Amino acid sequence: MQVREITTCCEPVLAGALDEPAANELASAFKVLADPARLRLLSLVAAADPGEVCACDLVAPLGRSQPTVSHHLAVLVDAGLLRREKRGKWAWYSIVPERLAVLRDALGRT
What is the pLDDT of residue 82? Predict the structure, then answer.
């Protein structure tokens, strides 16, 4: 899957017909979240207190191997939905709320 950073998109879907480029961009963004593991990871990071979580703490709750978790986290980072900060040998993740707002707004009403 080709992952592009989600920055801006289009008018809300309910505001009128999307042209093909806007539909392709929006579909690509939602494909990132269409995987149950990535959607769970996004929710785990969003629910983390104090707003960030170490990758090492996501393996057990997800029930997947560390390489699989790392792959899905990388996809979310590449899409701009998560921010990654390296601290020593660990990576810490937090939500990028403005990127999620782009997707939310695309589904909103005008």
Answer: 95
